[in-house]
Backbone:
């Protein structure tokens, strides 16, 4: 898959930024990465809100091997094949993946703020 193909695939979603990442690409919008393209497959960001949709399609999470052991990256699941030929539904799935990525980013920021507040409180006490 090349950049032109990916730009067309995500065209119904809107403008995206395609960046080299690992041995493939990362797909982002507004600075939020919501898709990975690795080993000839597209993976979309999932969370508790969207994962059931992928499961019902028979999709699987991204997997790789490290030091001879299989690893699963459960936050990215493979795009169902049928969506490559359905630009309208593809755009809907991309929007859901983008929303999942935004939720993950907000949760991460919130967690970091809590840790920072705790550290400041400990410093004041000590």
Residues:
């Amino acid at each position: 898959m090349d950049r032109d193909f990916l730009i067309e695939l995500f065209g119904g979603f809107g403008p995206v930024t395609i960046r080299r990442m690992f041995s493939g690409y990362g797909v982002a919008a507004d600075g939020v990465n919501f898709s990975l393209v690795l080993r000839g497959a597209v993976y979309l960001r999932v969370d508790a809100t969207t994962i059931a949709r992928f499961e019902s399609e028979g999709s699987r999470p991204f997997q790789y091997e490290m030091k001879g052991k299989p690893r699963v990256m459960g936050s990215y699941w493979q795009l169902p094949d049928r969506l490559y030929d359905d630009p309208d539904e593809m755009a809907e799935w991309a929007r859901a993946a983008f929303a999942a990525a935004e939720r993950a980013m907000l949760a991460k920021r919130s967690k970091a703020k809590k840790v920072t507040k705790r550290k400041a409180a400990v410093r004041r006490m000590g």
